[in-house]
Amino acid sequence: MLDYAGLERVSSGCIHFVHDHIENIPLLRDVIPELRRKGIACAYVRYAPGGGVGTIADEIGERLALDHRPYASGRRPWIRFLDDLIGLSFRVAGLVLIIDDADAFLAADRDEAFNLIEAFLIQFHHWFEKEKPCHLCFQLEPNPLIEQVFQK
User: Taking the mean position of all CA atoms in its chain, how far away is CA 136?
Assistant: First the structure.
């Protein structure tokens, strides 16, 4: 329902499940550079099966240069990950995370997907209280055009 609209806004509608509609690509092409100009951190991760606990968190941590990565190798990886996202809320104007091929992620690594959602929601209020946008987007079907938007 939300697609990629409103990523620049502070909203409690912070988790997006996006189907592969062609109109999403021009929207992202326009909005991602604008988000970056505003100081909103953006991270794109394409799900790769078989990575194990912490893989998505590690990839996000790498793209955002978070402090305590890698997460998979330590104790309580999701706590350290959400702590890093809280710390990031003090340094940037907002956050947008996009997980591509999320259908496969949700089907194959359900526990990791739920841990990601839970960690994201636990730390979300830190952004919301600062009136900073914070969004987690699940691009359900893989889309190489979205990856191209992030390679620029």
Answer: 4
Instruction: Please state, rounded to an integer, the average pLDDT across all residues of the chain.
Output: 88
Q: Please, which pLDDT band fits residue 5 given cuts at 50, 70 and 90?
A: confident
What type of residue is 43? Answer: A
- Which of 92, 94, 87 lies closest to 8 in space, CA to CA? 94
Please give the model's pTM, rounded to 2 decimal places: 0.90
Cβ pair 44, 98 in contact under 8 A: yes
| Residue 126 buriedness (CB in 10 A; 0-12 / 13-18 / 19+) | middle
* 64: enclosing H helix or E strand: helix 55-64
Closest CA to 113 of 47, 40, 63, 37: 47
Nearest to 118 by CA among 76, 147, 72: 76
